[in-house]
Amino acid sequence: MKMEIKPCPFCKSTSLIVDKKSRLAGFNGLEERIERHIYSVRCNKCKARGPIASGLVFAVKNYHNLPDPDWATTDEEIKNRAIDLWNGRII
Prior knowledge:
The structure is a single chain. The protein is α+β, with helices and mostly antiparallel strands. The protein has one helix spanning about 75-85, and strands spanning about 15-25, 35-45, 55-60. The protein starts with 15 loop residues before the first strand and ends with a helix. A hairpin with a 5-residue loop joins strand 1 and strand 2 (about 35-45). The radius of gyration is 15 Å and the shape is elongated. The protein has one domain. The protein contains one helix and three strands.
């Protein structure tokens, strides 16, 4: 589901991107790669950046068909949290 992103509170630009960074967080007991994904909204005009949202995700979806652990999340959830943080600002 694509969420609407409010304009930049500083320059009012609508030229915004949702930026993603990732890094290795480790491996589970089944040798599946776990990464920390970090998302934030950034203005392409004035370069303002919103708060970050992060979470742990499987780099390759759990191919053992086991239920995801409580700590696991998805890129969609993290991205939506970053957009919510940007949109919920007090300015």
